[in-house]
Amino acid sequence: MSKLYNILIKHGQLFAIILSVLIVGIFFLIVTSGSETFDQLPEEEQYLSTIFDFGLYAAFYLIIINAIIALAFGVWFIIAEPKRSLKLIIGLVVLIVFGLILYSTADAGLDGPIAGTLSRFDISEGVSRFVSAGLSTTIVLIALAALSIVVAEVINLIKN
Fold first, then answer.
1. Cα–Cα distance between 153 and 39 in angstroms, integer?
2. Distance CA 55, CA 73 (A)
3. Quick one: CA dihedral 59, 61, 62, 66, positive or negative?
4. Distance of alpha carbon 137 from alpha carbon 134, whole angstroms
5. What are phi and psi of 113, to 5 degrees?
6. Which is nearest to 1 in space by CA: 83, 75, 89, 65?
7. Contact 132, 106 (CB under 8 A)
8. How many whole angstroms from its chain centre is CA 19?
9. Among residues 72, 62, 65, which one has the least CA distance to residue 4?
10. Are 95 and 89 in contact, with CB atoms under 8 Å apart?
11. CA-to-CA distance for 67 and 73, rounded, in angstroms?
12. Per-residue model confidence (pLDDT) at position 46
């Protein structure tokens, strides 16, 4: 895995640029070769056209492949360098515990003003609590990030 990592460090950007130019070129050829037929279709049938599917699927699969690669390298780093990744592990554990606390204290909203919406879309109590906990966790993390930016700037101001 370290050989692959070293290869990607040296040639990763070049590989990404070549792959993106190749995908864009293929997409451009597909669209330009079928554009006359696409333009002749009635507007309601243009929505059913598959002329743009290659670009959409390519973007979708590239996002999934990149997420898998990022996750694999993250796990590899944690395994290869456990001492250096200790802060990351502690942070993830704290975040998971914080999320579980917010999940256990979250209101499902089954008796409030959004109860009708939850029942109309068949949203269960667990899903509602999970969404509520996720939103609360996100809001707290955004507030902590903003606070840390302000504190860092004040510290920089005092140092200089």
1. 55
2. 27
3. positive
4. 5
5. -70, -20
6. 75
7. yes
8. 21
9. 72
10. no
11. 10
12. 81
- Token pair belonging to 71: 């996750």
Residue whose C-alpha is closest to residue 136's, from 81, 95, 79: 95
Tokens found for residue 49: 């056209």
The predicted pLDDT at position 37 comes to 83
Spatial CB neighbours of 88, under 8 Å, sequence gap ≥ 6:
78
> In order along the chain (160 residues), what is the average pLDDT of each group of 10 residues?
76 87 91 83 81 89 92 88 89 92 84 78 87 92 96 92
CA distance linking residue 140 with residue 159, whole number of Å: 28
Q: CA-to-CA distance for 114 and 120, rounded, in angstroms?
A: 10
3-class DSSP string for 13-70:
HHHHHHHHHHHHHHHHHHHHHHHHHHHHCCHHHHCCCCCCHHHHHHHHHHHHHHHHHH
Residue 1's pLDDT is what?
63
Residues constituting the chain: 160
Q: Residue 102 is inside which H or E element, if any?
A: helix 86-105
